[in-house]
TrEMBL record:
PANTHER family: ACYLPYRUVASE (PTHR11820), FLUTATHIONE S-TRANSFERASE (PTHR11820:SF90). Gene3D superfamilies: Fumarylacetoacetase-like, C-terminal domain. The keyword Metal-binding applies. It holds the Pfam family FAA_hydrolase. It comes from Methylobacterium phyllostachyos. InterPro entries: Fumarylacetoacetase-like_C, Fumarylacetoacetase_C_sf. This is Fumarylpyruvate hydrolase. Keywords: Hydrolase, Metal-binding, Pyruvate. Residues 27-230 form the Fumarylacetoacetase-like C-terminal domain. One of its GO terms (molecular function) is acetylpyruvate hydrolase activity. It comes from the Bacteria.
């Protein structure tokens, strides 16, 4: 059987220390998973159940070791950065226990959940989905994947983002309200997780707007940094 159109390219992440690639299936994102960020967004940081939204896999922008041009999307005048640890799954299933959840994680990467904040805020007011705010083309910049066999399972350490050399976000992975293991387990109660799924695990406080011509550098302890020039 032949496709009636050209098959879309499969999104795949490069892997540190390997010539192999990690094919991406779904991209899940958790909201407000750092207490200080929850407060700056006007939410209660108490340990309420986490909530998730999704980005399409082809919204990922794969960033290598060199600075990459990042396109400023249309229909917004308030485009925000959110640096995040990304967990990539090599296993999955339904109703996974927290105790064994990390066994399903292949590795970790630096990611950004870029957000058309004005469109997201409008959607919130109208009780509409967040897709136009969260799922713009290239709205998920992501670096190379670091296998857990090499870096372990990062649970603490600095996570930062700078704009033109000025630190704008600075947090610690240990400040997550819900750990990576807890996120995997909770999410598996709603979806049957599969190899190839990514989870953007939340952002620390300090989110803000970026403009064309500015440079963003996102870094996480043990995973290095990625650099994006907004164009």
């Amino acid at each position: 059987m032949l496709s009636v159109i050209q098959n879309p390219p499969r999104i795949a992440l490069p892997i540190v220390g390997s010539s192999d690639f990690f094919p991406v299936r779904r991209v899940y994102c958790v909201g407000r998973n750092y207490a200080a960020h929850a407060r700056e967004m006007g939410a209660d940081p108490d340990r309420e159940p986490p909530f998730f939204f999704m980005k399409p896999a082809d919204a990922l922008q794969i960033v290598g070791s060199e600075p990459a041009p990042h396109p400023y999307p249309p229909k917004t005048s308030n485009y925000h950065f959110e640096v995040e640890l990304v967990a990539a799954l090599a296993g999955g299933g339904s109703d996974l226990p927290v105790e064994g959840a990390l066994d399903h994680v292949y590795g970790y990467a630096i990611g950004l959940d870029m957000t058309r904040r004005d469109l997201q805020d409008e959607a919130k007011k109208l009780s509409r989905p967040w897709d136009t705010g969260k799922a713009a083309d290239s709205s998920g910049p992501i670096g190379a994947l670091h296998p857990a066999s090499l870096v372990g399972h990062p649970a603490q350490g600095p996570i930062t983002l700078s704009v033109d050399g000025e630190t704008r976000q600075k947090g610690d992975l240990g400040d997550m309200i819900w750990s990576v293991a807890e996120q995997v387990a909770y999410l598996s109660g709603y979806f049957t997780l599969q190899p190839g799924d990514l989870i953007f695990t939340g952002t620390p406080s300090g989110v803000g707007a970026v403009e064309r011509g500015q440079r963003m550098v996102a870094s996480i302890a043990g995973l290095g940094a990625i650099t994006l020039d907004v164009v």
